[in-house]
From TrEMBL:
<protein>
    <recommendedName>
        <fullName>Cellulose synthase operon C C-terminal domain-containing protein</fullName>
    </recommendedName>
</protein>
<keyword id="KW-0677">Repeat</keyword>
<comment type="function">
    <text>Required for maximal bacterial cellulose synthesis.</text>
</comment>
<comment type="pathway">
    <text>Glycan metabolism; bacterial cellulose biosynthesis.</text>
</comment>
<feature type="repeat" description="TPR">
    <location>
        <begin position="715"/>
        <end position="748"/>
    </location>
</feature>
<dbReference type="InterPro" id="IPR003921">
    <property type="entry name" value="Cell_synth_C"/>
</dbReference>
<feature type="region of interest" description="Disordered">
    <location>
        <begin position="939"/>
        <end position="970"/>
    </location>
</feature>
<dbReference type="GO" id="GO:0030244">
    <property type="term" value="P:cellulose biosynthetic process"/>
</dbReference>
<dbReference type="InterPro" id="IPR019734">
    <property type="entry name" value="TPR_rpt"/>
</dbReference>
<feature type="signal peptide">
    <location>
        <begin position="1"/>
        <end position="22"/>
    </location>
</feature>
<dbReference type="InterPro" id="IPR011990">
    <property type="entry name" value="TPR-like_helical_dom_sf"/>
</dbReference>
<keyword id="KW-0135">Cellulose biosynthesis</keyword>
<dbReference type="GO" id="GO:0019867">
    <property type="term" value="C:outer membrane"/>
</dbReference>
<dbReference type="Pfam" id="PF13432">
    <property type="entry name" value="TPR_16"/>
</dbReference>
<keyword id="KW-0802">TPR repeat</keyword>
<dbReference type="GO" id="GO:0006011">
    <property type="term" value="P:UDP-alpha-D-glucose metabolic process"/>
</dbReference>
<feature type="repeat" description="TPR">
    <location>
        <begin position="380"/>
        <end position="413"/>
    </location>
</feature>
């Protein structure tokens, strides 16, 4: 094979020959400048320089050629032809004319592609086919310049090619005597042939001192000496010259020692001499035959044994070589074979190490390398093997240090540089890898083999740099370049597919892998890459299936490691599934059994720690990682990253921040760098969430922005952005953000929950219901999903569904807690705190007292472990059960005013009983309200204004209208649907009243925005101003009955409250109907505003301003037959200043409300009998004047003062009451109430603020 030398030719032309002499004239200076700019591809500066040179000499060949070359490179061939004609006109014909003619020919037609094809054939080790294409390019003309150098270098490696290449290179040397690349090519080829070897080696020795090509020349010099074998007396000075400059080269020194040993055996035997000469010519078969012939006659001949040992060494049969050289060294005079023996043992150990490494026996491999190092620590091969072994086993820092130590001793060591390049690439340090690649000369690149692989490596590093800058398109272009350079490289395919996946192009990523692996999809590397891609898509089952298709014998260590990791991860995943289903104790037990299997593998420990955190034991997860980190002098970054992930989960943001800063400047592998980016990404999102929760939305977005730019299609960052929009009140925008996420991942229950949350805020209840139902179906066994779904169902008002889900979650958690009882059955430790740390690890051998004292941790006593009351689900269920608890309330209310006895005077005593209870997502209530009304007896002077009026009084002046009182029992049922904001009730005014009539209503109370609401209602309610309006009245003198008025109508209200200010406005219209009472109608408008002076969790103080306007069609404020007996001014205006203070403690809540204002009342006059003209006429006749009530208008001050309170007597029993007074110019009313409420569910929630005391159903 001649691959490496041939590959060198492709890049040899990159060497720019310096000028032979320093510029000494203006022409020389300009030529130097022109070459300088042209070499750096700066065409404008080069053109400027060449034109200046033509001003000095219009026929200067270098200038004409330089300008012509610029035109060729710009694809302006007619202009280049013009410069060629000027050169061809010169006599004698300059070499530059031939060169430009060749350049133009190469740029014409398909010649440029033909040159690419020729070079490709060279890279594929097909020199004969390549040379045929080169000859087509030259078209019978002698090759010129760099291309001629390239051509002759390739030609020289072919059979008999030196016969043409040698004179061709000599011709070029005469034209360019100072061209260092030509000097190097000629010297290395001279050293290849026995006849010219000494001359070539000497030339290489001379060139090794040059700064430009010295490194390459030194490598070729050494290689030529290695090729020449053990030296004879004539070649010995060449070895000695080399060793004077490189005294630490143990290999060549051993080769020199072999030559001397062989030389000292000269003349002893013809067969021996023949073998030695054949060995010098590296003709191993002839040498073997000669030495074996000698050993048949002299089996203990030290030189024959030693010579055959060297043959075996070159055949890499190290065991045989060691045996033969060992026997040679034990013979008389065999001491000179000790050095070759040591060398063979050295190489044998390295061969054994390589074999063990290939068999994945890294312990044996490491031991053999260490043995080789003890034999000879100066040679580079053992340190190289050690560094390679360390790199393969993940000890990247140690491997890097090893490679760099080798390069300190030998900066040109190619294997060390290649190893370091690969390691830097693996460590995700593409900039360093590229810089090191750039230091390789063309010949060195060729020696490394597979030029396409090198190009691909370079493109991969450029892709990593672009991706690190956030230039995903640039990264993709670089990866596609790498794929074109080496289409069979599976890692390039995987990198490209991963990038496409990151850009949200999952289908394209799969197609990339499918097309790239189509040639042999079942080969182990293809299956392995597919498995890794499956993991990228979070499909470990598919990854496991793909790995199982790789035969065990063909699995690499990485493949076996991945299989083991997948098995371990599956067990951890099973434990996490238990935790997600609420079986945290079972999950922890299963995780504890996995701890020994994790060893000190970072990924395994990280997964285990994260699972512990998910199972509710964050501290154990952290401790697991801390223990390993504490044992490491230099902790593995991968382990620290896993530690950071668990810290992040635990909320230790300060520690995560410090860890990220610490790792920021460290050298990380590609995998570790990705882990770092992932942790930083999640940390950013978390900080943005925390800033949002604190109300700093601007900084939250600024914090989130880099994550959005880095992963614009990722669920995590987009859901965080949606939460920002929700916090800003833009629920519609948040919901739109979820739509593409749900299209991509409709089966993700967390996304469905997030979308449902946004829909709830956007008041799209239909969407929210669908998303919640979908989330619950997808996460039916995930307690976190069910708990969050219950929260959202509750916000929708579907409290029954929320309760059902939470009961399901808590039942699982309680069953799981029972599994921890064996540890907790021991009585509580009387010497420790009642509630201690709950470590539930059972051990066969108890720890020492010192360990117990140091740990200071005990298993929890039964009363601690028994009830996991701290779970989010149980807290939510507890709160929901309290809210939905069935309640029994018994009250007693008293209302009394100072109006005229028998007429407007009223003492109202009621004893309402209410039983309310949940039914599914709604509540029902049954109400029974005994009512007793007493207006007193109608005074003598008031008899003419009651019932039959003046006529009845005149007819029977001493007869009383009768006692004005009534009683009855009201019945009602009520319904409320929190989801819809709907309430309804239906019942009657108290049965037993003179008039009992159906009453009820329906209302809708819903939000408009986060801070505003509207209420609409339609109702039929009793008018309870007086006995007449509420129950109806009867005049015993005449038997007349009338009253029992109801208000029938609608009301609407808008309200706004942002916890600092509030405002409201309302309007209503009612038709007032009664029995034998004139119909009436009422319209009302009102508005108000208020400000919170105090608004804390347990205290509120508001001050406001209110305005009310009421108008009735007619005045029904009187008590003669046909009047309703209720306050009904034709115009009523009130302007008030209300002040409200609410306060609560753990067991007590109260409220004080007061208002003071001014009232304007206008009342029209009214006939005594608005419904009966006959009675009206009789009354007028009896009075001797028109029977009419006079109108009035008045303005007065008014005030009201109300207090309410509630006290919690026990976990289920509450007592409360209220007391109030309303006062106007001619009116004062007192009211008070007490009540006792029993809740079937124990209550430990905070009491209501403000307090809402229980009121009678008739308290309108």
């Amino acid at each position: 094979m001649i691959r490496a030398p041939l590959l060198a030719t492709l890049l040899t032309g990159l060497l720019t020959p310096p000028l032979a002499l320093a510029a000494s004239t203006p022409e020389d200076l300009l030529i130097e400048q022109g070459h300088f700019w042209q070499a750096r591809k700066n065409a404008p500066r080069a053109q400027e320089t060449w034109n200046k040179l033509l001003e000095l000499d219009a026929q200067q060949p270098e200038a004409l050629y330089g300008l012509g070359l610029i035109e060729v490179q710009a694809a302006r061939l007619p202009a280049a032809q013009a410069y060629l004609r000027r050169l061809q006109a010169l006599k004698p014909l300059p070499q530059q004319a031939l060169q430009l003619e060749q350049d133009i020919a190469l740029a014409s037609g398909d010649n440029s592609q033909r040159l690419v094809d020729a070079r490709q054939l060279v890279s594929e080790d097909k020199p004969v086919q390549a040379l045929a294409l080169y000859r087509q390019l030259f078209a019978g003309r002698p090759p010129q310049g760099d291309l001629a150098r390239e051509y002759y270098d390739i030609l020289a490696y072919t059979p008999n090619g030196w016969q043409e290449a040698g004179p061709g290179i000599e011709r070029l040397r005469k034209l360019r005597p100072q061209d260092p690349a030509l000097m190097l090519i000629q010297a290395k080829h001279l050293a290849r042939f026995p006849a010219s070897r000494s001359r070539g080696i000497q030339a290489l020795a001379d060139l090794s001192s040059r700064k430009d090509i010295g490194g390459e020349a030194a490598e070729y010099w050494r290689q030529a000496l290695v090729w020449s074998g053990p030296p004879g007396p004539a070649e010995t000075p060449l070895f000695e010259a080399y060793l004077r400059q490189h005294p630490d080269d143990a290999e060549l020194r051993a080769q020199l020692d072999k030559g001397r040993a062989l030389s000292r055996s000269g003349g002893l035997d013809p067969q021996l001499a023949r073998g030695i000469e054949a060995l010098r010519r590296n003709e191993l078969g002839e040498a073997e035959s000669a030495f074996q012939a000698r050993l048949k006659t002299a089996p203990n001949d030290a030189n024959a044994l030693g010579g055959l040992g060297i043959v075996r060494q070159r055949q890499e049969r190290f065991s045989d070589a060691e045996d033969l050289l060992s026997r040679a060294s034990r013979q008389p005079g065999g001491a000179r074979w000790q050095a070759p023996l040591a060398e063979v043992r050295y190489w044998a150990l390295l061969a054994q190490a390589r074999k063990a490494q290939q068999a994945n026996d890294f312990t044996t491999a490491h031991a053999r390398v260490e043995q080789a190092l003890r034999l000879d620590a100066k040679r580079p091969e053992a340190p190289l093997a050690l560094a390679g072994l360390q790199a393969q086993t993940g000890q990247l820092d140690a491997a890097e240090a090893g490679y760099r130590r080798i390069l300190q001793q030998d900066p040109r060591n190619l294997e060390a540089r290649r190893g370091l390049i690969d390691l830097l690439a693996e460590s995700d340090r593409p900039a360093e890898a590229l810089r090191l690649l750039d230091t390789l000369t063309p010949a060195e690149r060729a020696k490394l083999g597979n030029l396409d692989r090198l190009k691909a490596t370079q493109a991969l590093q450029e892709a990593k740099l672009a991706e690190g800058r956030g230039d995903l398109q640039g990264a993709r272009r670089a990866l596609e370049d790498a794929r074109r350079a080496d289409p069979d490289d599976v890692w390039t395919l995987l990198a490209l597919a991963r990038l496409q996946l990151r850009q949200g192009q999952a289908q394209a990523a799969r197609q990339t892998l499918d097309s790239g692996l189509a040639k042999d999809p079942q080969r182990p590397e293809a299956l392995y890459v597919r498995a890794l891609f499956a993991l990228e898509q979070n499909d470990p089952a598919a990854a496991r299936e793909l790995l199982d298709r790789i035969p065990s014998a063909k699995r690499s260590p990485a493949m076996n490691g991945l299989a083991a990791d997948l098995d371990f991860d599956a067990k951890v995943s099973a434990a996490r599934d238990l935790a997600r289903r609420g079986q945290q104790q079972a999950a922890r037990r299963q995780l504890a059994t996995l701890e020994p299997q994790a060893g000190e593998r970072a990924a395994a420990l990280g997964g285990l720690a994260a699972a512990y955190a998910e199972a509710g034991d964050v501290e154990r997860g952290l401790r697991l990682l801390r223990d390993v980190l504490a044992r490491e002098r230099t902790p593995d970054p991968a382990l620290r990253l896993q530690y950071g992930e668990v810290l992040l989960r635990s909320g230790a943001d300060d520690e995560v921040n410090a860890l990220l800063h610490d790792l920021q400047g460290q050298r990380l592998s590609a995998t570790q760098r990705q882990g770092y980016e992932d942790l930083l990404y999640r940390y950013r999102v978390r900080q943005a969430d925390q800033l949002r929760e604190r109300g700093d939305l601007v900084t939250a977005y600024d914090t989130l922005a880099p994550a959005l730019a880095q992963r614009p299609d990722d669920d995590l960052v987009n859901t965080a952005l949606a939460r920002l929009y929700l916090a800003n009140g833009d629920a519609d925008k948040a919901l739109r953000l979820y739509e593409p996420l749900l299209r991509r991942a409709p089966d993700n229950p967390r996304l469905q929950l997030g979308a449902a949350d946004a829909a709830v805020r956007a008041r799209d209840t239909a969407f929210a219901d669908r998303a919640l139902d979908r989330a619950v179906a997808l996460g039916a066994d995930d307690v976190a999903v069910l708990t969050d779904a219950a929260r959202l169902y509750r916000q929708l008002g579907r409290e029954g569904r929320a309760t059902e889900l939470l009961r399901q979650v808590v039942a699982v958690q309680r069953r799981d807690a029972e599994t921890a009882r064996p540890l907790a059955d021991a009585p509580a430790n009387p010497f420790g705190p009642r509630r201690g740390s709950a470590t539930l690890a059972s051990q066969a051998i108890p720890p020492t007292a010192d360990q117990l004292l140091a740990a200071a941790k005990t298993a929890p006593p039964a009363d601690v472990a028994e009830a996991p009351r701290d779970s989010a689900a149980e807290r939510a269920l507890d709160d929901l059960l309290q809210t939905r608890s069935a309640r029994i309330t018994q009250g007693l209310t008293v209302r009394s005013n100072d109006n005229e006895r028998g007429l407007g005077k009223l003492t109202d005593v009621e004893a309402p009983l209410e039983i309310d209870f949940p039914l599914g997502d709604v509540r029902l209530a049954v109400r029974v309200t005994p009512v007793s009304l007493n207006a007193g007896s109608v005074g003598r002077d008031a008899r003419s204004r009651f019932g039959g009026g003046p006529a009845a009084t005149q007819a029977a002046p001493d007869v009383s209208p009768g006692s004005q009182s009534d009683s009855g029992v009201g019945l009602a049922v009520a319904y409320s649907d929190p989801q819809l904001g709907l309430k309804a009730d239906a019942g009657t005014t108290p049965l037993g009243f003179l008039y009992s009539t159906p009453v009820g209503g329906v209302s809708l109370d819903r939000p408009l925005t986060d801070n505003s609401r509207y209420t609409l209602s339609a109702s039929r309610r009793a008018v309870i101003d007086s006995l007449t309006s509420f129950a109806g009245s009867e005049d015993a003198r005449t038997g007349q009955q009338w009253g029992g008025v109801t208000a029938n109508g609608v009301r609407g209200q808008l309200g706004y409250d942002d916890s600092q200010f509030g405002a409201y406005a309302y309007a209503s219209w009612y038709r007032l109907l009664g029995n034998h009472v004139a119909d009436n109608s009422r319209g009302e408008l009102g508005a108000g505003l208020y400000r919170y002076l105090i608004n804390s969790e347990d205290s509120r103080l508001t001050l406001g301003l209110s305005l009310t306007g009421i108008a009735y069609d007619n005045n029904q404020a009187f008590f003669t037959y046909g009047h309703g007996g209720y306050f009904s001014p034709q115009r009523f205006y009130a302007l008030g200043v209300p002040l409200t203070w609410s306060q609560r403690t753990d067991r007590w809540t109260w409220q004080l409300r007061g208002a003071v204002g001014v009232q304007r009342i206008v009342q029209d006059g009214a006939d005594f009998y608005p419904t009966d003209a006959r009675l009206q006429a009789a009354a007028s006749q009896a009075l001797g004047a028109p029977a009419a009530y006079g109108g009035q208008s008045k303005t007065s001050l008014g005030y009201s003062l109300h207090g309410a309170t509630e006290y919690q007597l026990g976990r289920q029993l509450f007592v409360g009451g209220n007391l109030g007074v309303d006062n106007g110019r001619d009116f004062q009313q007192l009211n008070g109430a007490v009540y006792l409420r029993y809740a079937l569910e124990p209550q430990d929630r905070a009491l209501a603020l403000p307090v809402s005391p229980y009121r009678s159903p008739y308290d309108n």
